[in-house]
Amino acid sequence: MGTSSRVAAAIVVVLGLxxxxxxxxxxxxxxxxxxKVEKTADMPLDSDVFKVPPGYNAPQQVHITQxxxxxxxxxxxxxxVEEPGSNTVLYWSAYSKKQKSEGKVTTYKFxxxxxxxxxxxxxxxxxxxxxxxxxxxxxHTERQFWFITPPEVGPDVPYTFGLIGDLGQSFDSNKTLxxxxxxxxxxxxxxxxxDLSYADKHPNHDNVRWDTWGRFTERxxxxxxxxxxxxxxxIDFAPDxxxxxxxxxxxxxxxxxxxxxxxxxxFWYSIxxxxxxxxxxxxxxxxxxxxxxxxxxxxxxxxVNRSETPWLIVLMHSPWYxxxxxxxxxxxxxxxxxxxxxxxxxxxVVFAGHVHAYERSERISNVAYNIVNGICIPVKDQSAxxxxxxxxxxxxxxxxxNMTEPQPAYSAYRExxxxxxxxxxxxxxxxxxxxxxxxxxYAVTADSMWFFNxxxxxxxxxxxxx
Length: 466
Ligand SMILES: [Fe+2]
Hints:
This protein has helices at 3-25, 171-182, 208-221, 248-253, 292-300, 332-344; strands at 29-30, 60-66, 74-80, 89-93, 99-101, 104-106, 109-110, 113-114, 117-123, 131-136, 143-148, 159-164, 189-192, 226-227, 269-273, 276-280, 311-315, 349-352, 358-361, 364-365, 379-380, 386-390, 411-415, 419-425, 430-437, 447-452. By secondary structure, it is of the alpha+beta class. The strands form six sheets. The protein has an eight-stranded mixed β-sheet, with no helix packed on it. A six-stranded mixed β-sheet has the order 14-13-12-24-25-26, with helices on one face. The chain starts with a helix and ends in a 14-residue tail after the last strand. Residues 166, 195, 231-233, 317, 354 line the site of fe (ii) ion. Its cofactor is Zn(2+); Fe cation.
């Protein structure tokens, strides 16, 4: 080693020490609230929230999601049990006459379970910002619902997203959904970060629990779209009982508009909604270089026009930045692949689930490391997203309470409580984010932050005193 390279090595070592001191000494806030640590149970099958609607062949598990890239289409899905019945959705607004749309019906088997008749019908060419009523179950027992289409895509369109992850169907799940519904910061669509029913925690992945979850969540998702992300509990891979096709129940029951964004699989896709561009990624599909997801994302990110949709939001299931001792570093390989792009394209915020707790990061990146240079510590980065883990929907697996200590500097706030959040976009520069925990009143935020848009207002919006 020559003199100059020794000096360089010494500089790297000193720099590393300074960086690591900064990281160790300036942790964010860990809430002092301590919940009792116990697993919660799924609500019993005869619970009110799982009630089957009355009437012959009545549609159940009604749910909607966005059906195109712009928000002018809605996918309506429902299940009938006695017979297939009609695939027709009848819909109208105060300004239009009644129209019909036809869809398709499917069924699947899983071990010793046979599904009901699962209907998916896309309604297209809707007007923006309009309340539509719709009816399913035509010919047998009709049920009527409604939804409101989003405003036309544009840079200063206000819009409020709800955020829920890892919901399941426990008593805590029911509290989370109720808190979301009664939050005065009215969410207009839910960004769901994966792990829906947790049916796979029951013997032989008892798919009856997919049905109960569909009936439980209908009271929200029949009236506003939930944007779906696939989590590990959607994989339903069970070779011991002969079930080797991953995502079988999930893909039969929950459709997403992936083709509209040029995706080749329903696990990664994008939509525009109001002033937001939302990219959904799959932690459980191949994401390495040259894979379909990688190729799609490489082509997708340059398409985001921040003058049209200022807010760039990414959803995934497994978090990249997580200082709990659960699922620690599970997101690391995907972070290594995609984090440089997120910084380059100035993603505003990344929402993930998986860890059953809450955590919000500062704007940091960790892209300098190249195997040989030793620069492997996250640093503050104003081009980087804020990472939020919101896997605290309340499923039967209980809370993640065990955290790494000391709290890393990049972790701005963390707390092991069940809850949900809202992301309230005001205009192209500002959005108000609030996390609500189930033990508080409906209007209380336990953690909040004003987001400054990374493209239009890239001012430091960190909440720590560093
Ligand atoms: Fe998960």
